[in-house]
Amino acid sequence: MSGSSSGEITVPKISDQIPHDLVTEILARLPAKSLARFVCVSKTWASTIRSRDFHNSFVTRSSTRPSILLALSDTHRDRRYSFFSFPISDNEESPSLAYHGYMKRRTFSMFHSVRGLICLKCSSSPVILNPSLRKAVTLPVTTPNLRPEENDRYCYLGYDPIEDHYKVLSIETRLSYRSGTCSFQEIRILTLGEDRLQWRKIEGGRFHFPDSPGTCINGVLFYRAYIKHVGITLVRFDVKTEKFSFINAPNHHLPSRLTDYRGKLAVYGPIRRGFLRLFVLEDTEKNEWSNKLYVMPHSWRDLVPGGDELFDARFTDSGGIVLAPYFTRSERYYVIHCNPERNILERLSLEDPKN
């Protein structure tokens, strides 16, 4: 408010320029679906939303309303993976699936997620996907002089919370199935966010042949691998120091699925006769494991369409389980949410927006 020499009181106009800090603060409070649209508003907004500082701020805020990132595949559409998130907050009274787009299944064969980013294993080079923004970045070819079809390549994404670095680990291996020996192995690593994305060779210790997706917990990347004369084992990779170590399996039949169970590594297999067995690594140094058995309610199968058998299981801090089918014949994407402690059993569905 201001005055004039004639005594008239005038109201100043509101500036059409909102401070950038305020815009960033507002954007960080919005859902991911809105951010995916707002990158088209202007180059400034797009640059802000796609920046590392904004991503860290958004992930930090999201930690107060944690969610599980899922990739659901179908058999009746054009063979694609659709990406969804499911809230696991204890305060969520009516949880629902949020859709984040899809990718053709022929373009990649394996994925795992870290803090909202997804690493995709593709035939030529790894791809990093941010499903919330529906943006994908293809990384440089790891070994341009080698033909991908001659070797098996596994790619993993890890996060170092101390240095705030995302790193992609690439392991290219040639395995002789007759002798069970690894005739060739090359391990490289790439740090995201650098001005020039460039792979570096690192030592991986003994030859090992990865055979599972990975999971990153508190700066440590875990995945399953085969080692000659040892068999199936677990690999532990420290993202900060870039050092490998190996963990003895809890038994000779190590399940292939790895997950984060309340901040600890856990492995599990398929549900058999209504039971889901979980092995939790309680102490890495002492190689101490605990054995947990989840008993599914008798009626849980009534919520599953016929033909859907294998499920990806995720575990919430409140004792709940979220089951997502690897492949579904259903006309709707769905997950099964079960919490025995709270007597919750429900099927959550979502019509495919691209149906």
Describe the fold and architecture.
With 355 residues, the protein is mainly beta. Among the domains are: 18-64; 108-247, Neuraminidase (6 Propeller), CATH 2.120.10. The chain is built from four helices and 27 strands. It has helices at residues 20-28, 32-38, 43-49, 52-62, and strands at residues 2-3, 9-10, 67-74, 80-87, 98-104, 110-114, 117-121, 127-130, 135-138, 152-160, 165-176, 181-191, 200-201, 209-210, 215-217, 220-227, 231-238, 243-247, 257-261, 264-268, 275-283, 288-295, 311-315, 321-325, 327-328, 333-339, 344-350. Strands 14, 15, 16, 17 and 18 form a five-stranded antiparallel sheet that branches. The chain has a four-stranded mixed sheet with strand order 5-4-3-25, with no helix packed on it. It has a four-stranded antiparallel sheet with strand order 6-7-8-9, with no helix packed on it. A hairpin with a 6-residue loop joins strand 20 (264-268) and strand 21. The chain starts with a strand and ends in a 5-residue tail after the last strand.
Number of helices: 4
The CATH class of the domain at 108-247 turns out to be Mainly Beta
Q: Beta-sheet strand percentage?
A: 35-45%
Structural class: mainly beta
CATH architecture tag of the domain at 108-247: 6 Propeller
Helical amount: under 10%
Number of strands: 27
The CATH topology label of the domain at 108-247 is Neuraminidase
Ends: how far apart?
55 Å
Based on CA atoms alone, the radius of gyration comes out at: 23 Å
* Global geometry: globular
Low-confidence stretches: none
Arithmetic mean pLDDT:
75
For the biggest sheet, the summary is: 5 strands, antiparallel
